[in-house]
C-alpha cells in the first residue's frame, strides 16, 4: 500500500508562527509533521510515500532523503507548480501515482497531528474505500468538513451541513481508496481542472465519491488528533494532543 500526503498550500493564517517554514515542516515535540507521518507510515509497512508539495517545496525536497534513510521507506516528491490555485490541482498532479495503484492507496491531508492507531484502523477498515470521522467534533471549530451518516454509511461530505442523519462526524482528512473507485476519482478530478474550475478544493472530488456511495466510515472518536490550521490549533496540539501520542 502506498500513501499520498497533500502538503502544497501556503497556510497564510500561520505565517507568524511558521518561522519561514512550510506548514508540514512545523515541529511538535522536536519532530516535524512530515517526519511524524513518515515514521508512522513506515511502521505500518507502507510501501512508498509520495508528498505533494507546492509552497516552499525546496524545503520539503531537502529533507526527503534524510527521512527515507532514517525510517527505511521510499519517500518521493510530487510537485504542484500551481499551488496558489485550488487544491484540486494537487489531486490532479497525483493522478498518475493513484492510477498505478494495484491495491488500496492512502490519501492524507498533511496538516494533521494524530495518534498512530488512526492509520491502522483506516488500513484495516472493512470497507474497501473508507474515511475517518470523529463524532465528538466541536461546533465552535473553524467550519469543519462534516460527514452525515445513515446505517453507518456517509452520504454527504461538506462544510456547514444542516439536515437529518443518524450520526454526524467531522472528517479527519485521511482516506483509503480502493482501485475500483480510482476511475471515478480521476473523472471527478479532471472535470474540475478546466480553467473556470481550477480554484476548487479536492474536497469536492471526495464529496462526489461520498455522494455516489463509494465510502464507508471508520469512527475514531476519542483518539487524539488535531488539524493544524489556526494559531489556536498549535496551542492545542502542544498542550493537549502531543502528550497523548506514542
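^ Assign residues to that structure.
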Amino acid at each position: 500500500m502506498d500513501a499520498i500526503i497533500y502538503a502544497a498550500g501556503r497556510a497564510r493564517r500561520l505565517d507568524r508562527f511558521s518561522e519561514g517554514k512550510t506548514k508540514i515542516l512545523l515541529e511538535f515535540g522536536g519532530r516535524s509533521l512530515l517526519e511524524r507521518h513518515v515514521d508512522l507510515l513506515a511502521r505500518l509497512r507502507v510501501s512508498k510515500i509520495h508528498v505533494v508539495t507546492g509552497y516552499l517545496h525546496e524545503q520539503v525536497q531537502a529533507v526527503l532523503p534524510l527521512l527515507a534513510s532514517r525510517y527505511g521507506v521510499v519517500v518521493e516528491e510530487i510537485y504542484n507548480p500551481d499551488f496558489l490555485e485550488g487544491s484540486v490541482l494537487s489531486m490532479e498532479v497525483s493522478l498518475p501515482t493513484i492510477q498505478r495503484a494495484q491495491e488500496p492507496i492512502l490519501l492524507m491531508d498533511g496538516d494533521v497531528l494524530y495518534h498512530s492507531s488512526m492509520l491502522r484502523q483506516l488500513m484495516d477498515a472493512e470497507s474497501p474505500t473508507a474515511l475517518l470521522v470523529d463524532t465528538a467534533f466541536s461546533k465552535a471549530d473553524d467550519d469543519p468538513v462534516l460527514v452525515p451518516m445513515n446505517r453507518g454509511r456517509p452520504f454527504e461530505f461538506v462544510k456547514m451541513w444542516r439536515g437529518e442523519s443518524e450520526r454526524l462526524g467531522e472528517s479527519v482528512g485521511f482516506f483509503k481508496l480502493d482501485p475500483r473507485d480510482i476511475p471515478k476519482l480521476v473523472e471527478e478530478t479532471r472535470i474540475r481542472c478546466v480553467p473556470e474550475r481550477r480554484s476548487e478544493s479536492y474536497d469536492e472530488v471526495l464529496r462526489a465519491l461520498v455522494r455516489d456511495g463509494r465510502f464507508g466510515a471508520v469512527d475514531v472518536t476519542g483518539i487524539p488528533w488535531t488539524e493544524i490550521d489556526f494559531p489556536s490549533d498549535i496551542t492545542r496540539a502542544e498542550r493537549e494532543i502531543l502528550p497523548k501520542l506514542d
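The radius of gyration is 17 Å.
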